[in-house]
């Protein structure tokens, strides 16, 4: 009766060292994905912007189609050769029809078939006069849907980086039955220590679900210095596994029974007061 037993989920977060050489990045991603698979990982995650340096100036140059561009072909082959689910971080995508550029995550099953895509929904724009100006919307367009994918382990919600600061997508995913939210992301060295882990733990604890993040490794010679610290947090808000800023693979066996166990101990789900506030998973925008 093996088919009735849910497959054990072994997660691997690949904190990749990203360079300005797209082909080299794809090759490095591939070797790390295959390494993770050889150690038993069957759900593998790559970082935000894993094939290109992070920065609005780079997006137009590195952007490609997610129908038949070199990166999606490489990702599909990696998933298939690894025989694993692959949450393919994100790449700058150029839409073949409208020419607009998106920050897009593509997701594959162990046969290498694309089973979902997420275009970063919340774009990060800041302008503090005299201090810092970073406007993703100068080159990127926002996605217009939330993303959940079906896997052998259950449903997973996917967001990208700044999407993690907004509680709603995770809340909706949890109420719609996802066991995890996964966020490829690249916080910087100021917001990283302040918020990166805190936000993951908040999303996990509020929703009593797993949350994982996958950052690029830090490159002090690049214009953007990523925080790193790719991590996995459990449904009780506990950090299961993490790393520092260097290239690394973070592994975690996800015990999905922890969700039911924790929800039984602290039954938020049954004790909500939807007579006092709305259930946002049931409110149509
Ligand atoms: C990181 O981003 C924050 C938020 O936008 C900003 O205030 C800060 O100056 C940035 N830090 C670095 C090191 O660029």
Automatic annotation (TrEMBL):
Identify the InterPro entries for this entry: C-N_Hydrolase, C-N_Hydrolase_sf, Nit1/2_C-N_Hydrolase, UPF0012_CS
For this UniProt entry, the molecular function terms from Gene Ontology, in alphabetical order, are: omega-amidase activity
Q: Identify its protein family.
A: Belongs to the carbon-nitrogen hydrolase superfamily. NIT1/NIT2 family.
Hydrolase keyword on record: yes
- Protein name, per record: CN hydrolase domain-containing protein
Q: Which GO terms describe its biological process?
A: asparagine metabolic process; glutamine metabolic process; oxaloacetate metabolic process
Q: Which UniProt keywords apply?
A: Hydrolase
One cellular-component annotation, GO: mitochondrion
The yes or no answer to whether the keyword Hydrolase is present is yes
A Pfam family the protein falls into: CN_hydrolase
Q: Which CDD domains match?
A: nit
User: Start and end of every CN hydrolase domain?
Assistant: 9-256
């Amino acid at each position: 009766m093996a088919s009735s037993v849910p497959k054990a989920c072994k997660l691997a977060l690949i904190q990749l060292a990203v360079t300005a050489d797209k082909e080299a990045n794809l090759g490095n991603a591939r070797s790390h994905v295959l390494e993770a698979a050889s150690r038993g990982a069957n759900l593998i995650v790559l970082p935000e912007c894993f094939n290109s340096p992070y920065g609005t100036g780079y997006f137009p140059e590195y952007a490609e189609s997610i129908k038949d561009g070199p990166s999606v072909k490489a990702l599909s082959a990696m998933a298939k050769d690894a025989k694993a689910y692959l949450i393919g971080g994100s790449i700058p995508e150029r839409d073949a029809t409208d020419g607009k550029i998106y920050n897009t995550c593509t997701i594959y099953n162990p046969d290498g078939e694309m089973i979902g895509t997420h275009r970063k929904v919340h774009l990060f724009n800041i302008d503090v006069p005299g201090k810092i100006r970073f406007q993703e919307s100068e080159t990127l367009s926002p996605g217009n849907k939330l993303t959940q994918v079906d896997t052998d382990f259950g449903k997973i919600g996917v967001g990208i980086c700044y999407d993690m600061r907004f509680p709603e997508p995770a809340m909706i995913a949890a109420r719609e039955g996802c066991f995890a939210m996964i966020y490829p992301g690249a916080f910087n060295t100021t917001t990283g220590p302040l918020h990166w882990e805190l936000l993951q733990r908040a999303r996990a604890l509020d929703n009593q679900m797993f949350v994982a993040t996958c950052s690029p490794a830090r490159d002090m010679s690049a214009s953007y210095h990523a925080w790193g610290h790719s991590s996995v947090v459990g449904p009780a808000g506990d950090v299961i596994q993490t790393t520092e800023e260097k290239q690394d693979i973070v592994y975690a066996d996800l015990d999905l029974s922890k969700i039911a166990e924790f929800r039984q101990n602290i039954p938020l789900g049954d004790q909500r007061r939807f007579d006092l506030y709305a259930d946002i998973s049931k409110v149509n925008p």
